[in-house]
Amino acid sequence: MDVRNLAPASAGWWAALGFAMSLTVTAFSHAAETALPGTERADGPGQNEETVIYPRSFFDMYSPVDALDMVNQLPGFRLIEGGGSRGFGGNAGNVLINAERPSSKQDRLSQILSRIPAARVEQIELVRGDTGSLTAGGQSVVANVVLRDEGRANWTWKAQVEQDTDSGGPEPGGSVSMVARSGNTRYAAGVEARHFFIGNVADERLEVRGVPAEWRDDVEQTQGNDFAASFNSETDWDSTVARFNGKLEHQVFDFFERSERTPQSADESPFSVHRDTDSDEYELELGGDLQWQATPQTDVKTILVFNREWKDRISGRRREVEDLLIRRQRANRETREAESIARVEVDWTGWDDHYLEFDLETALNVLDNQLELAIDDGSGFSPVVVPGADSRVEEWRGDVQISDSWQIDAWTLEPSLGAEVSRISQTGPQGRERSFFFVKPSLAMIHAPASERQTRINLRRSVAQLDFGDFVSATNFGDNEINLGNPSLKPQNTWIAEVAHERRFGEVGVATAKMFFNYVRDLQDRLPIDGKDVPGNIGDGRRWGMELETTMPMDPIGLDDARLDMDLRWQDSSVEDPVTSRDRPFSGESKFRIHTEFRQDVLAAQTAWGLEAYYEDAVTRYELDELDTRDDGVDLTFFIETTRFLSTKMRLVAQNLLDRRFGRDRRVFESSRVEGEAAFREVRDFRRGRSLILSLSGSF
Length: 700
What we know:
Layout (H helix, E strand, L loop, with lengths): L10 H19 L9 E6 L2 E9 L11 H5 L23 E3 L11 H6 L6 E8 L12 E7 L6 E11 L6 E12 L2 E24 L2 E27 L2 E24 L7 E25 L2 E24 L2 E25 L5 E23 L5 E3 L6 E18 L2 E16 L6 E18 L2 E11 L10 E3 L4 E3 L9 E13 L3 E13 L2 E6 L2 E6 L3 E13 L8 E15 L6 E2 L7 E11 L4 E10 L2 E5 L2 E6 L2 E12 L2 E8 L5 E8 L11 E8 L3 E9 L1
């Protein structure tokens, strides 16, 4: 069956999802007689949470080196990094450390967890549904990593080398981090460095009005170095806690592509097109918070986060015929981005069975962009004026929210009411200033009659983060065009409805089914304006679908100490196309996705092995005069790891076992997609090749 031809959401699909979940639970729950690792109803001021507790011993069979190894093995849990939403409050991931969220945005949760030695983890608490008393940003399932203090410092280290079997290498990398305590201060620091190389080859054909016109043989290479250093600390003074974190990252890379092109017409000579890019990027983030108990029922927390990025890129494109230069293009782009956030959180537990929180946040985002484009047609470089290339974009935003977590027997209600006001301004000939106001209500209802069963209903409104890069213009030498910016963009906002049901069985068995519906207002896509194609808001749309996440023990079918994790998602969408005035799916979104991972631990040999597979349906992007369809095929990865030697984890990963193909079908029309036949079509078969990664890691 071709999953791209699946019908829109139908009763058959809902029935199939319910049957799949029922079959999963029935087949494995009868064989899994062991109870959950630990189930606790934690009764405290203003909370009554259903929490599954995984002690340190639960993870011993996986031989974890750091906290990330442990979180990745939580049954039925998928790490959500956060980092892409507006401000700080709505940007949370789904992992806390000692019930607190790190005061950072760009330092990802996976990186923070990888710097915490597994020996420092006391237990991990999986809080399902009632997360109102945690700084979890509305996440419905949260993992709380509980650390223990030790008198001595703990270190973790990792060294790895990657070798592409079809291109360059080797690519070394490594990291070292430390966690320690001095008096009433806990602190951690880490450094990491890596060299990376990506080699690709592609075959492409060009068709003009349906007739083969050109064959292309492409080779791409990207290589560079990445360095990062981080530090964080936490100091306790009785009922007051101060935290600080900082990270500095530097990345340099260069890109080169050579495309040998053979026209099919006897009147044209073969020629070549070369592209290159040199990039130098820095990123600095500083953050911290101060938390104290103002009254026996009131906790106050103030948060400050500052982030700044510097990006300098020089790109070029040239066309040659028999080593004779025909045309050159050169672009020099400098980008400076900054984000400053101040936030106050006040928690109050003076009302029985309630946990009230009041949040106030303000943020300032700034983008400075400068672009210089020049073209040489044989007589030297001449500057080209690009509208919207040199510009400054600023957004100030204020956000206020009050929320409650109310426990009623086996039910938890979490109502919330928020509002935000923002002002966006842009300098330059096309610059303008606009203001926006959004009301953001939400309601979560959780029913947990038993530790093995839980139902969650969520209704909320979210406001998307604007990409300031869409406000300014940039070069796209890959498709030999200019991507124009749009100073009239508005934030996309979505009304979200979700219903999820979770069943747990045995120590690792979990099945969660979810149905969702989104009503999207001011959907951001490609918008035709005065015969040009720019980022813009194309109107209102709808998205609906379902998701099934499972962790299944394989013992019932004779595979001891083995498990299968699966994440399956199907969705569809509809919006009126601004070009054709007909309904179509959202641009750039696939209908079907499946991610599975099988793992078996052979305890007697202190070894584990497994397979990971990923498939996502083809996606299409819709522009004024272009249809761009991409299909990334199936990705299959094999791994084997052991801890038998020198108390060190040795892991070998073989990536892209199926020699994955990345397909692209680009159809460009003369002026608009309403035309019946494309002016030209580019069909590309892109191959990245296989690679082997050997890593050694440990702690002391």
